[in-house]
Structures are given as C-alpha cells and as structure tokens.
Write a structure and sequence with these properties.
disordered C terminus, about 120 residues, elongated, 5 helices
Length: about 120
C-alpha cells in the first residue's frame, strides 16, 4: 500500500508540473545573458538555449584548445603560447556570438520583441 501511495504522489506531481514546464519553454530568452554566459564559459549559453549537445561540444573544444595547444607549444615552440591564447579568446567570442544569435532567433520565431522581451502585438 505504501508503494502505491508513493507512485500515486509522484505521478500526480509530475502531471501537475507539466503546465509549468510547457510555460517555461515559451519564455523569451535574453540574448545578452546567454551570450555573456557563453563568453565566460563556452557552452553555457548554448545550454541555456536548450542545445545540450552543442553545449557539450563548445565546452570540450574550450578545454581541448589550451590542453592540446600548450602541450604542442612546449614540445615545438614556446612562442606558440600567444597564438593558443588568441585561439582560445576567438573560441570564447564565437561561442558567445552563437548563443546570442540562437537566443535572438528563438525570440523572433516565437514572437517576442527584442526591446522589452514581451510578446509582439498585432503580429
């Protein structure tokens, strides 16, 4: 009897949460926040945009650039460390621009205004 009550509570709780989950998907996204998040930690803005696979790729590339780059720089030429730093900065900028553009495209596709992030009227 105790297991049945527990399953019933879990199922009813999940069913009650469905409208809130659906409503959360229709919220506007702030492109600046997503872009800044992805600039600081590549992949975070993509994760906030709901692109978890892309987020993982962006994060792994951000980890791989300095790891492999500095290993090669020490083995081949120590002057390459500056090029690796520039490549890392470039990846952060690319990741931020991607997160910004995806959030902005989401807002436009769902009818949210870019000025007040509210629904577009008459449109």
């Amino acid at each position: 009897m105790g297991r049945f009550a527990l399953v019933l509570v879990v199922v009813l709780g999940a069913m009650a949460a469905i409208p809130f989950v659906a409503a959360a998907e229709e919220r506007p996204r702030d492109p600046l926040i997503h872009g800044l998040a992805s600039f600081l930690v590549p992949g975070l803005g993509q994760y906030l945009n709901g692109e978890s696979d892309k987020a993982l790729v962006h994060f792994l590339v951000a980890v791989a650039i300095p790891t492999a780059g500095y290993y090669l720089a020490v083995a081949a030429n120590p002057a390459l460390t500056y090029a690796i730093s520039l490549l890392q900065l470039g990846w952060h900028v690319y990741s931020a621009l991607d997160a910004y553009n995806v959030a902005q495209a989401y807002n436009e596709a769902h009818g949210f205004s870019s000025l007040n992030l509210g629904p577009k009227l008459g449109g």
